[in-house]
Amino acid sequence: MFRVRHRGKGDGGSTLSSSLRNGNQLPRMLGPFDAAALVISNVIGIGIFTTPGLVAQLVPHPLLMLGLWLLGGGLALVGASAYSELAALRPRAGGEYVYLHQAFGSLPAFLSGWTSFAAGFSGAIAAGAVGFAAYLSHYIPRAGDTRPLLSIPLFLGTLEVSSRSIVALSCIALLSAIHLCGLAPGRIVQNTLAGLQVLALLLLIVLGFSLGHGSIKHFAVFSGTAKPFGLLLALVPVMFTYSGWNAAAYVAEEIREPSQNVPRALALGTCGVTVLYVLLNSVYIYAAPTTELSRSINTGELAARALLGERATSVITPVILVALAGAISAMILAGPRVYFAMARDGLFPIPLGRVHPRFQTPVAAILAQAIWSGVLVISGTFDQILLFTGFAVVLFSGIAVLSVFVLRWKLRNEPRRVRAWGFPWLPAIFVAVSLAMVVNAFRQQPKPSAAGVLVIAAGLPVYWWFVRQVSQGH
């Protein structure tokens, strides 16, 4: 799918700087299926069980709704093809941090990494862990209890520890400990969770169509007229639900033969998720017409109840728990590679850029992310910080794809083993759609978006401090 040009057996090691060769380089232990499993787990979360209702509100035409999910997968695939070229060119840990650093300099790169640490990965991990505790309460009622067991007053607010937060913290701690102990156990856990995610969704799809009490007539029921503006607006939650398609790029330094296997992983993972999402939305429409879907934020539960009646909770809850566990694990694996790359460049605390001599993982970076995610859990601020910075996920991935154009010019004499699919038109479309989504976010949610800009801008003094330390030789 992506144009791969083989030029010998290079694993990308020749592109690594001398600082990487002299020490803190992560071992290449992941194959294409390991990396594809990371993509699948990072994409599939609770979003696919909630956002289809919002999409149905904006696109009240069943077939157009399915087409929009297919378009979202296509756009994600275009972005993945651009990341494939970038990852083959610079097969290092860190994803878009590395690409922005090469194309636009250290400041934009730092701000993307800062946002990943402050909100993008840590906030999403906290939200996923709290959601996991809430759904676990279907089986263990105390797991979702929000009554404070301990309150710690602070200057800016109060930290409250409840049964739900203890379960969430335990989830983060357990998965962080597994990934801290090396890629061998981390890969087994991640691949197992990804396999369970796919199996659970396929089971839900099969049960829905074979045993469910739905109707094929729902695909011909229109609850309104789809307008161009509504289609563009609906693309926002669709693309957020696909976010995570670039996960393999964060661990490119740990993938064997990255010029071949990163494109394979990105393509396989993105295509697999797209098929699952289109089929799952087909089940939703089979279960209920768009008029009913548009009234519910919990689309998955509504569809399961319509199809399976009293058995709905026993079917949908385990699926969501598996999806959340896989997504949390994937983010715990991918996120620290960004902070590791920043620290290795002197733009984050130096210990975060070290590889543990025994485990061969960025232990300090994993611990830092776990601690900050835990703070967000017990402070209860993870939902606000994700609301504030949601547009940043789209913004920085769009800028990363834009860097393909910049690096084609800046590094025009460097050979490319992989070339982005449909260049320049398809990457340009991806950048344009990303820009439209960011502008739309500011139009629809000006105050949260402005607060998000402040969160990103809070990284500026931190950046200047690290730059000063580097210039002074500290």
CATH architecture: Up-down Bundle
Number of helices: 20
What is the oligomer described by this structure? single chain
Largest sheet: 2 strands, antiparallel
Q: What is the CATH C level class, in words?
A: Mainly Alpha
Instruction: From the 3D structure, determine the CATH topology.
Output: Amino acid/polyamine transporter I
User: Unreliable runs, pLDDT <50, ≥5 residues?
Assistant: 4-22
Kindly name the structural category.
mainly alpha
CATH superfamily: Amino acid/polyamine transporter I
Q: Into which percent range does the helicity of residues fall? A: 55-70%
What's the pLDDT, averaged over the residues? Answer: 89
3D structure, described in words:
The chain is mostly helical and 474 residues long. It has one domain (26-471): Amino acid/polyamine transporter I, CATH 1.20.1740.10. The chain is 68% helix and 3% strand. It has helices at 18-21, 32-43, 51-58, 62-89, 96-104, 106-120, 122-136, 163-180, 183-210, 228-242, 247-250, 258-287, 290-293, 299-308, 312-344, 363-379, 382-410, 425-444, 446-457, 459-471; strands at residues 3-4, 148-153, 158-162, 418-419. Strand 2 and strand 3 form a beta hairpin. The longest helix is centred in the last third of the chain and has 33 residues, at 312-344. The protein starts with a strand and ends with a helix. Residues 4-22 have low confidence and may be disordered.
